From TrEMBL:
<dbReference type="GO" id="GO:0008173">
    <property type="term" value="F:RNA methyltransferase activity"/>
</dbReference>
<dbReference type="GO" id="GO:0006396">
    <property type="term" value="P:RNA processing"/>
</dbReference>
<dbReference type="Pfam" id="PF22435">
    <property type="entry name" value="MRM3-like_sub_bind"/>
</dbReference>
<dbReference type="InterPro" id="IPR001537">
    <property type="entry name" value="SpoU_MeTrfase"/>
</dbReference>
<dbReference type="InterPro" id="IPR051259">
    <property type="entry name" value="rRNA_Methyltransferase"/>
</dbReference>
<dbReference type="InterPro" id="IPR053888">
    <property type="entry name" value="MRM3-like_sub_bind"/>
</dbReference>
<protein>
    <submittedName>
        <fullName>RNA methyltransferase</fullName>
    </submittedName>
</protein>
<dbReference type="InterPro" id="IPR013123">
    <property type="entry name" value="SpoU_subst-bd"/>
</dbReference>
<keyword id="KW-0808">Transferase</keyword>
<dbReference type="GO" id="GO:0032259">
    <property type="term" value="P:methylation"/>
</dbReference>
<dbReference type="Pfam" id="PF00588">
    <property type="entry name" value="SpoU_methylase"/>
</dbReference>
<feature type="domain" description="RNA 2-O ribose methyltransferase substrate binding">
    <location>
        <begin position="29"/>
        <end position="104"/>
    </location>
</feature>
<comment type="similarity">
    <text>Belongs to the class IV-like SAM-binding methyltransferase superfamily. RNA methyltransferase TrmH family.</text>
</comment>
<keyword id="KW-0489">Methyltransferase</keyword>
<dbReference type="GO" id="GO:0005737">
    <property type="term" value="C:cytoplasm"/>
</dbReference>
<dbReference type="InterPro" id="IPR029064">
    <property type="entry name" value="Ribosomal_eL30-like_sf"/>
</dbReference>
<dbReference type="InterPro" id="IPR029028">
    <property type="entry name" value="Alpha/beta_knot_MTases"/>
</dbReference>
């Protein structure tokens, strides 16, 4: 059992909470039973290390079974070691290390995608994780992240996806002009969520078409140059007294409207 929180092995895992370490190693950190469960079910080939306290391991029979089936061995660790490895204040006794396997933007458009999400300069990890989760929930084909968007392998993003990071392709470091150009060439309409756009309700019928949604920065949205790259800008109406919607909430509404429209045809 690993019991020394200051050992080189523990420190190497803990460093993955930092972007520089993730960039240097190509690895990232998974925390908690949900992340471990989804990784074992959907991408066991990417899991390199799995750590757990004996108590947490005994508690999750399904994770034990999935690890055994995938041929992934667990290294038992004390609670102090798991605390040292984890990014959260109160970890749940299970931590893993996995390889980053982003999707090529070319692969995103190799098929015939009907619903794509493009994030430009989304900076809040919780927002990005929730957008990826929503994209998964509506059956989107992929999520594309520009180079100015927060790292999807940030521990806070990974936790916020609740496993959806393993369910659909995620391309990273893509230029917005390249992403929208490829989407347009693939026959998708490029639609931006923007407070200065046209009323959403007036264009709901167009969402039945193959669509690439573009979501911008939480504070500034999309700048004028970005908006020149899209075919249509839409704003969600506010019927009550709220000043605005959180980006992730607005994105979820937009994506579900597209999913409803596409499945009604």
């Amino acid at each position: 059992m690993l019991e020394n929180p200051r050992s080189p092995r523990v420190r190497a895992v803990a460093k993955l909470t930092k972007r520089t370490a993730r960039q240097e190693t190509g690895l990232y950190l998974l925390e908690g039973p949900q992340a471990a469960r989804e990784a074992l079910l959907w991408r066991p080939d990417t899991l390199l290390e799995l750590y757990a306290t004996p108590t947490a391991w005994d508690k999750h029979q399904d994770i034990r079974d999935a690890a055994s089936e995938a041929g992934v061995e667990v290294a038992f660790a004390s609670e102090q070691v798991i605390d040292a490895m984890a990014d959260t204040v109160t970890p749940q006794g299970i931590v893993a290390v996995a390889r980053q396997v982003p999707t090529s933007v070319r692969d995103v458009f190799d098929g015939e995608p009907r619903l794509i999400v493009i994030c430009e300069e989304v900076r809040d990890p919780g927002n990005l994780g929730t957008i990826i989760r929503a994209a998964d929930a509506v059956g989107a084909d992929a999520v594309i992240l520009t180079g100015r968007t927060v790292d999807p392998f940030n521990p806070k993003v990974v936790r916020a996806t609740t496993g959806s990071l393993f369910h659909l392709p995620v391309a990273v470091g893509v230029d917005l002009a390249d992403a929208t150009g490829r989407a347009r060439s693939a026959g998708l309409r490029i639609v931006a969520a923007d407070v200065g756009g046209e009323d959403f309700v007036d264009h709901r019928a167009t969402l039945a078409e193959p669509t690439a949604w573009v979501f911008g920065n939480e504070a500034r949205g999309l700048d004028e140059d970005d908006l020149q790259l899209v075919d249509l800008s839409l704003r969600l109406p506010i019927y009550g007294r709220a000043e605005s919607l959180n980006l992730a909430t607005a994105a979820s509404v937009c994506l579900y409207e597209s999913a409803f429209a596409q499945r009604a045809t």
